[in-house]
Specification:
46% helix, 262 residues, three-stranded antiparallel beta sheet, single chain, alpha+beta
Length: 262
């Protein structure tokens, strides 16, 4: 594929039609050009050049010179890209505003449990719950492999909001890392987390409970590649969900055993 074809294809991905992209690319190759010249360089029918350039002119990508014959000139590439970005930002804002206008249910959909199979999405879900925390965060970390900087940032922001953050970790190295990143959190070494068992080549990674209702339970599993692991998780939301009810009891018992007030 030629560089011209690549440029056309990239502009199409940004929302221009094929003819609009071809005309704009042709005009960037010319200092200025008539419809006939644009047609020849862009390799599109001359009859389509006029309406295509008119659309580009309305979008601010080209300017027209009143001459005989009429000539056209592309705006600088940086200006065109800025206008594409502004157009996209405007569309995104419009879509966001429209979505906010959609009537939401009175309560979140907290039925069932949901699976996550990609590490980035596990982190996304954890950070979402952490950012929504209002009162308390309980976090068990069995391996340093699951710690992401975004999670540490969300934990720190939660403590800044006055949320109580209680973290149990498997060893002193993780303790020191968490204590440094989230100095206001209550970080405790729980020896049993270092002795978790593998089941079907999968072992515990992290367990999060936020405000005694939002749960994320993540595990580490071996992949088909040597020395490569990946994280999977399940999550649920709702104070009346059975999984959340059990987690509240089990985690409160852990606090009692650690002699920490729930």
């Amino acid at each position: 594929m030629s560089t011209t074809d690549e440029a056309v294809a990239d502009l199409e991905k940004l929302g221009l039609t094929e003819y609009e992209a071809r005309c704009f690319v042709a005009l960037t190759q010319l200092s200025k050009g008539t419809a006939k010249e644009v047609s020849q360089v862009a390799e599109i029918p001359r009859s389509r050049v006029y309406d295509t350039i008119e659309r580009l002119n309305k979008r601010g990508f080209v300017v027209a010179q009143e001459s005989e014959p009429r000539e056209y000139k592309a705006v600088p590439i940086e200006m065109a890209m800025r206008r594409i970005k502004e157009d996209y930002d405007s569309r995104i804002n419009a879509a966001e505003n429209s979505l906010h206008q959609v009537e939401e249910p009175e309560s979140k959909d907290d039925e069932g449990m949901w699976a996550i199979t990609q590490p980035d999405r596990v982190t996304d879900r954890i950070c979402t719950f952490l950012d929504e925390a209002e009162e308390q965060i309980r976090f068990l970390i069995a391996t340093e492999d699951v710690i992401d900087q975004r999670i540490l940032t969300s934990l720190q922001q939660a403590t800044d909001r006055g949320v109580r953050v209680i973290i149990e970790v498997a060893n002193e190295d993780i303790h020191d890392r968490l204590h440094e990143a989230v100095p206001d959190a209550e970080v405790t070494i729980a020896a049993d987390l270092a002795d978790t068992n593998s089941v079907y080549a999968e072992w515990p990674g992290q367990l999060l409970m936020v405000d005694k209702q939002s749960i994320v339970a993540g595990s580490i599993e071996e992949s088909d590649l040597p020395d490569v692991t990946q994280e999977v998780a399940v999550w649920t939301y709702g104070h009346d969900h059975g999984f959340a009810a059990w987690m509240r009891e089990l985690l409160d018992n852990r606090l009692a055993n650690l002699d920490i007030e729930a």
